[in-house]
Design goal:
Blueprint: H1 2-6, H2 10-64
Length: 253
């Protein structure tokens, strides 16, 4: 190769150099192209990650709501407030006015809501397990798919509440008024429903297994497909206006 190169004419040497440069360029161009594509992809990924972080930061700030301004008063005045996704375990909200408030997807386990006004509030998918809602007013509240496991609703008013598919296992509803409420497909397994009022309520396909429904009033209620396995029904008033004999378990006798 060396002899051929040095023995060649100027024109031949120029031709050879041109072919060598072209070959080198052909090898370098694909490599440069791949590098550029890699850098472009990396920049795009960084932009996307930054966008996601900004969105999450905004969502978290909104979700926490830290301490909403309406909570400043001794008894919170938060009627019609936007408290969606609010995170406040064991919040002290006794006597609070939350009527018409939007609390959908809020996380309030163990909250103290004794005597609170939640009439017409949006409580869909809210987490209130272990919360105290004794004496609270939830008339017309939306509780679909809410979590009320082990919650206390003693003496609470839930007239006309919409609580389809609510999970209220082992919750305490003693003396609560649920007239006209919709608890279809609700899970009330092991709940204490003694002396509750369910007149004209919808309990279709609800699960009341092992619940204590003694002295409960189910007059004119829709009990279609409801499960009563092991349910205590002594002295309960049935949908057909019969009074179950004392000691009735699993069915009204």
């Amino acid at each position: 190769m060396a002899e051929t190169f040095y023995g060649s004419s100027d024109a031949s040497r120029a031709s050879w150099l041109g072919r060598a440069v072209a070959a080198a360029r052909g090898t370098a161009e694909p490599s440069a192209s791949r590098t550029a594509l890699a850098i472009g992809g990396l920049l795009a990924a960084l932009v996307a990650a930054t966008f996601v972080l900004i969105v999450l930061a905004g969502y978290t700030a909104k979700s926490l709501h830290v301490v909403p301004a309406c909570m400043a008063a001794p008894e919170a005045k938060c009627a019609n407030a936007d408290l969606r996704h609010w995170i406040a375990p064991k919040a002290e909200l006794a006597g609070a006015d939350l009527s018409g408030a939007d609390l959908a997807h809020a996380y309030l386990p163990g909250a103290n809501l004794r005597g609170a006004n939640l009439s017409g509030a949006d409580l869909r998918y809210v987490v209130l397990d272990g919360a105290d809602l004794s004496g609270a007013k939830l008339d017309g509240a939306m509780l679909s798919s809410a979590n009320l496991q082990e919650a206390a609703l003693v003496g609470a008013s839930l007239k006309g509440a919409l609580a389809e598919r609510v999970s209220a296992t082992t919750a305490d509803f003693q003396n609560a008024d649920l007239t006209g409420a919709d608890f279809s497909r609700a899970d009330l397994t092991g709940a204490d429903l003694e002396n509750t009022t369910w007149e004209k309520a919808n309990l279709a396909r609800a699960d009341l297994s092992l619940a204590n429904a003694k002295k409960a009033n189910f007059e004119d209620a829709d009990l279609t497909g409801a499960t009563w396995q092991g349910t205590l029904l002594g002295l309960a008033e049935w949908s057909d206006k019969r009074v179950c004999v004392e000691g009735s378990i699993g069915q009204c006798r």
